Amino acid sequence: MVPSDSVLTARDLRKRFGDLTALDGISFELKRGEILGLLGPNGAGKTTTIQLLLGLTSPTAGEIRLFGLDLARHRREILQRVNFSSTYVSLPSNLTVWENLNVFARLYGIRKPRARVEELLELFGIPEVKNRVTGALSSGQQTRIHLVKALINDPEILFLDEPTASLDPDIAAKVREVLHRVQRERGVSMIYTSHNMREVELMCDRVIFISRGRIVTEGTPAEIVERARSQSLEDLFISIARDGELRESP
Predict the structure, then answer these.
(1) Which of 100, 105, 181, 201 could cross-link to 110 by cystine, CB 3.0-4.6 Å?
(2) What is the pLDDT of residues 158-171, one digit of tens each?
(3) pTM over 0.90
């Protein structure tokens, strides 16, 4: 059972880029220990939402609070308590894995960076890559290095953008097991994006579907599939991607 207290609240978030409205008044919350799926077709507003929640850009209107603090006023304090991983962001390829991770460990003030890095590399099953050049790693190894980086500061909130996109099915299953273990043992809250609907069903306690900058439905995967009288979460995704909205059955 997910506790009821919220660690993140977004209220009426709007973001415009010139004449383009990327987000059109979305509101939601993330509860402590919850994995919340942020779903939608390409261009729906997911990346913009994550950028706003990380303070990488400012909303045109609306409010974001993490741990009860206003993000605009307490960004530095908040970012010490969160972290982010994306398959689509690269670390300096000419540095070794240890050199890259040591930079982040020191940025977060980790007292024993070497021990922390070795612990996390072991957790993700890749202790042997510590002294290898990052650019020489396979895409799957690099994906797990990003997850190590994301856990380096023992965050309370994790933002995970397609965290298993480049992994084979076996390694992806092991990564999901690690993330669930972190959720269970540390009470970490996560915002999780993926185009793999089976993975969403396995990972997420609750999901939000965004289309054209608006939330079109939210609930547990089972609830929204039932409401829409859809065959599966994947069929529902396709329907929203094609129509831009959800036609729920009475």
Answers:
(1) 105
(2) 999 999 988 999 99
(3) yes
Q: Tell me the DSSP string of the chain.
A: ---S-EEEEEEEEEEEETTEEEEEEEEEEEETT-EEEEE--TTSSHHHHHHHHTTSS--SEEEEEETTEETTTSHHHHHTTEEEEETT----TTSBHHHHHHHHHHHTT-SSHHHHHHHHHHHTT-GGGTTSBGGGS-HHHHHHHHHHHHHTT--SEEEEESTTTTS-HHHHHHHHHHHHHHHHHH--EEEEE-S-HHHHHHH-SEEEEEETTEEEEEE-HHHHHHHTT-S-HHHHHHHHHHHSS-----
d(CA 182, CA 74): 26
Cα angle 174, 83, 30 (rounded to 5 degrees) comes to 85
Domains of the chain: 1-79+204-243 (3.40.50.300)
Q: Is the dihedral of CA 142, 178, 49, 102 positive or negative?
A: negative
Residue closest to 112 by CA, chosen among 121, 102, 122: 102
Look-up of token digits 């779903």: 39
Chain position carrying tokens 């054209």? 212
The answer to whether 218 and 197 have CB atoms below 8 angstroms apart is: no
The tens digit of pLDDT for each residue in 126-135 reads: 999 999 999 9
